[in-house]
Write a structure and sequence with these properties.
The chain is mainly α. It contains 5 helices and 2 strands; from the N terminus they run αααααββ. A hairpin with a 5-residue loop joins strand 1 and strand 2 (94-96). The longest helix has 21 residues, at 45-65. The termini are far apart.
């Protein structure tokens, strides 16, 4: 998508794509996931939106450092789950059928 390319160009301009690694971006993603957890616990909607956005940026950077297209990853995942059956637990977690 156009926005994904803008994020990649941003990362290239800052040397992230050329000089970082998928492992380094994984660590950055973990940091952002922790911020999301804190925002959820605090019921801070704006902080949640910021954290989700930051997570997406780190995923795009991770894919770019590995020369993988994020949208193709999403398509693979969707193709795997689109016909999946299962149930929702009382706490809101989807459990796939065996």
């Amino acid at each position: 998508s156009e926005l994904e390319m803008k994020v990649i160009q941003w990362g290239e301009a800052r040397g992230i794509v050329q000089n970082s690694t998928p492992l380094a971006q994984w660590a950055k993603t973990q940091e952002e996931v922790e911020e999301l957890f804190q925002a959820i616990e605090a019921d801070d909607y704006d902080a949640m939106k910021d954290a989700y956005g930051d997570i997406l940026v780190t995923l795009i950077m991770g894919c770019a450092t590995a020369d993988i297209d994020l949208v193709s990853c999403l398509k693979l995942a969707y193709d795997e789950i689109k016909d999946r059956k299962g149930y929702l637990t009382p706490d809101g977690i989807f459990v796939k059928e065996a």
